[in-house]
């Protein structure tokens, strides 16, 4: 009784810790970033910038691993209920380049004092921040099927929508540092006008003395920035339309234009799900096989388990019938939960002791255990 109670307490504490990390921290960061944007007294804005970027990217990775998002390309088979990669691997360089432009620009206006940043450099940095936020919005729209099209329970949909807070915080931080940079640049224009000997620069500095003129300068700088970025992408073989194809050469998502192959069928057999859905280096798929006329991925663990079931049906048919009914009742609900490679890996590891037990029984009771194992799903 005490052991069970302690286990319940440990499980409760584990849930509380996970809740605090993956839900509490994003909401606290959101509150602090909103405070900095609207309140007079600022709270560690640069520290919040780094925390938001680092934790946001880390949480995004955890979110993708824990839930249904895989790294499979649109033309690869995935298990039923899982998603293909939301970004094309062929055009991933385009996405990373645009992300780099946005992050570098944001760090520039946040960390470099206005007196050390020329107005032209500041305008290009603001354009880079704008470009990064546009990409952030497009990525949110790309992931809309994951955030907004889930069926109940709605709490699961809420959890799966948590990455939206990351994009919201990036927007808040961008607005804060853009405003701070512009307000810091404006008082410097008078001194630049006095020191400048060029009439063109004087007119430019006079134009930038008003905060309302900075959006015009930002959009003016955005055009050459986009052209330069496109030139780099073309130079690296991404093509002029690489920025679009990184979203469209995918399946399952908002901007996807490709039709994926049918999902791998596992028909309620969770070991089939493990063999098909886990990381190859862990679950070690061996070959394709046939189950009820449908192609499935087969690994050693699946063949051993099926060989043991075959042996059990021969030697103890009544016991096999009871185990089969239990398995049919509970195996399918379990298989529905194995929707990511990480979960498949975990089930594979947990099943290892049973695999060894099944193999021991086969070698003990079967005259040719390896022949029995190898012919499964052939």
Quick recap:
This protein has helices at 2-38, 45-66, 92-111, 119-142, 144-148, 154-160, 163-185, 189-195, 199-207, 214-235, 242-248, 270-277, 280-283, 300-315, 317-337, 341-365, 369-374, and strands spanning 285-291, 294-299. It has 378 residues and is mainly α.
Report what the structure shows.
Helices cover 70% and strands 3% of the residues. The chain has helices spanning 2-38, 45-66, 92-111, 119-142, 144-148, 154-160, 163-185, 189-195, 199-207, 214-235, 242-248, 270-277, 280-283, 300-315, 317-337, 341-365, 369-374; strands at 285-291, 294-299. The protein is mainly alpha-helical and 378 residues long. α12 crosses α16. Residues 151-155 have low confidence and may be disordered. It is elongated, with a radius of gyration of 28 Å.
Principal-axis shape equals elongated
What is the mean pLDDT? 83
Low-pLDDT ranges: 151-155
Multimeric status of the protein: single chain
| Strand/helix succession | HHHHHHHHHHHHHEEHHHH
Query: What's the main sheet like?
Result: 2 strands, antiparallel
Report the sheet-strand fraction.
Answer: under 5%
What structural class should be given to the helix and strand makeup?
Answer: mainly alpha
**Distinct helical segment count:** 17
- What is the tally of beta strands? 2
* Helix amount: 55-70%
Instruction: Determine Rg (CA atoms, Å).
Output: 28 Å
- Order of strands in the sheet with the most strands? 1-2
Terminal residue distance: 48 Å
């Amino acid at each position: 009784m005490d052991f069970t109670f302690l286990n319940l307490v440990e499980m409760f504490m584990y849930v509380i810790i996970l809740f605090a990390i993956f839900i509490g921290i994003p909401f606290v960061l959101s509150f602090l970033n909103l405070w900095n944007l609207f309140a007079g007294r600022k709270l560690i804005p640069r520290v919040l910038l780094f925390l938001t970027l680092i934790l946001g990217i880390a949480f995004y990775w955890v979110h993708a691993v824990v839930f249904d998002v895989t790294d499979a390309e649109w033309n690869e088979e995935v298990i039923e209920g899982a998603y293909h990669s939301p970004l094309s691997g062929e055009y991933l360089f385009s996405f990373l380049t645009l992300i780099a432009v946005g992050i570098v620009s944001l760090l520039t206006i946040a960390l470099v004092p206005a007196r050390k940043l020329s107005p032209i450099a500041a305008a290009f940095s603001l354009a880079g921040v704008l470009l990064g936020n546009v990409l952030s919005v497009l990525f949110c729209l790309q992931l809309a099927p994951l955030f907004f099209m889930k069926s109940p329970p709605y709490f699961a949909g809420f959890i799966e929508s948590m990455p939206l807070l990351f994009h919201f915080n990036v927007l808040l931080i961008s607005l804060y540092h853009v405003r701070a940079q512009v307000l810091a640049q404006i008082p410097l224009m008078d001194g630049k006008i006095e020191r400048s000997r060029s009439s063109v620069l004087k007119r430019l500095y006079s134009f930038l003395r008003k905060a309302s003129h900075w959006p015009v300068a930002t959009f003016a700088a955005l055009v050459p920035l986009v052209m330069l970025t496109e030139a780099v992408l073309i130079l690296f073989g991404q093509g002029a339309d690489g920025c679009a194809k990184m979203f469209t050469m995918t399946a399952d998502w908002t901007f996807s234009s490709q039709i994926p192959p049918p999902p791998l069928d596992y028909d309620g057999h969770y070991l089939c799900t493990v063999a098909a859905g886990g990381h190859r280096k862990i679950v070690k798929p061996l070959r394709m096989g046939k189950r009820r006329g449908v192609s499935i991925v087969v690994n050693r663990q699946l063949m051993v388990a099926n060989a043991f079931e075959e042996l059990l049906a021969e030697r103890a048919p009544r016991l096999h019938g009871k185990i089969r009914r239990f398995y049919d009742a509970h195996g399918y609900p379990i298989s529905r939960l194995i929707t990511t490679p990480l979960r498949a890996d975990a089930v594979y590891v947990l099943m290892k002791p049973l695999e060894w037990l099944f193999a021991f029984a086969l070698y003990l009771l079967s005259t040719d255990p390896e022949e029995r194992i190898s012919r499964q799903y052939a």
